[in-house]
Amino acid sequence: MKLNERSLAFYATCDAPVDNAGFLYKKGGRHAAYHRRWFVLRGNMLFYFEDPGSREPVGVIILEGCTVELVEAAEEFAFAVRFAGARARTYVLAAESQAAMEGWVKALSRASFDYLRLVVRELEQQLAAMQAGGCPPPPRRPRALPPKENGCAVWSTEPPATSTGARPGPEPPPLPPRRRASAPNGPLDSATFAQLHELYGQEVRALRSQWLRSRAQP
What we know:
- The protein contains four helices and eight strands.
- The chain is of the alpha+beta class.
- An eight-stranded antiparallel β-sheet has the order 4-3-2-1-7-6-5-8, with helices on one face.
């Protein structure tokens, strides 16, 4: 994948809100030492810098088709971002506390378009049920994969497959409440797509802000 370096650097340092940010220890290679880097998560891109004041990122990790799992390493609170494929690189990172590690693992596991696709599919089902005048289907929220057989906890960005008796994964962001609504200027069945998009967009943004505030609380 070819990326425009100038556009990437602008996106990494723009004033738009970030999904997560903080210091992590990054292992440089197979036998290399850990280096403390400032990490910024924006959408499905994980940027890392020399320090918070850096104007350009040292590198970026595209979080598509990966799994995020806890690992045993020299550093405490370590986890890995793994990609499928024989030559795919594995990124070993370590947080500075248990709470920071859990926050990063959850944020990274929800950063891919696969997770967002599940959320959009749920909203489309709600909208279709409301337009048909029927009751919306029961809520279904995306879940992380259950732990591996060896007991190693795993979070995945791939669409998870359900299994009977599987232990539920980390709690995902809240979905918009199910209820019949009216468009800003008239009944729902006469609303335009732009009006519906704005109506649901406001609700999703409010819920996301509430969820981010709740995560920030100790």
